[in-house]
Design goal:
- The protein is an alpha/beta fold.
- The chain contains 4 helices and 5 strands.
- A 5-stranded parallel beta sheet has the order 1-2-3-4-5, with no helix packed on it.
- The longest helix is centred in the first third of the chain and has 8 residues.
- It is globular.
- The termini are far apart.
Amino acid sequence: MSRQDYMNTSVQEPPLDYSFRSIHVLQDLISEDPRTGLRPLRHSRSGKSLTQSLWLNNNVLNELKDFNQVISQLLEHPGNLAWIDLSFNDLTSIDPVLTTFFNLSVLYLHGNSIQRLGEVNKLAILPRLRSLTLHGNPIEEEKGYRTPRTRLGAPGIS
């Protein structure tokens, strides 16, 4: 499959879904089977997923150590990741590793423990980020939470 064919089809692929798996560390993803949906995931010849969406919501992650290494083992084209759902975990900060995914357009971080509003500024480097959720984090109580500075130009922040 050519890279262009991949780009045209992977957007429509179902997510690689590890939600509700009680994942504590990302390395656990290697031995854990993803949830199955109505449509089956497609895989490359090497056995890696051909999707641009990764759902890790409703787990107990408190850090993203080894994120790139683990994702490289799961996704055929990790650099094309466009949607990451990390909602309802135990994250206290926005790991800089998330800023390395320049195709990221959707990032769900709601329901975590992110406390510092300045953490959001790290994401300003992501040119395609259009939807960012932060509600349900302690930063929601900070003055200026919904100011344009926090919006990063992304119309979908909540």
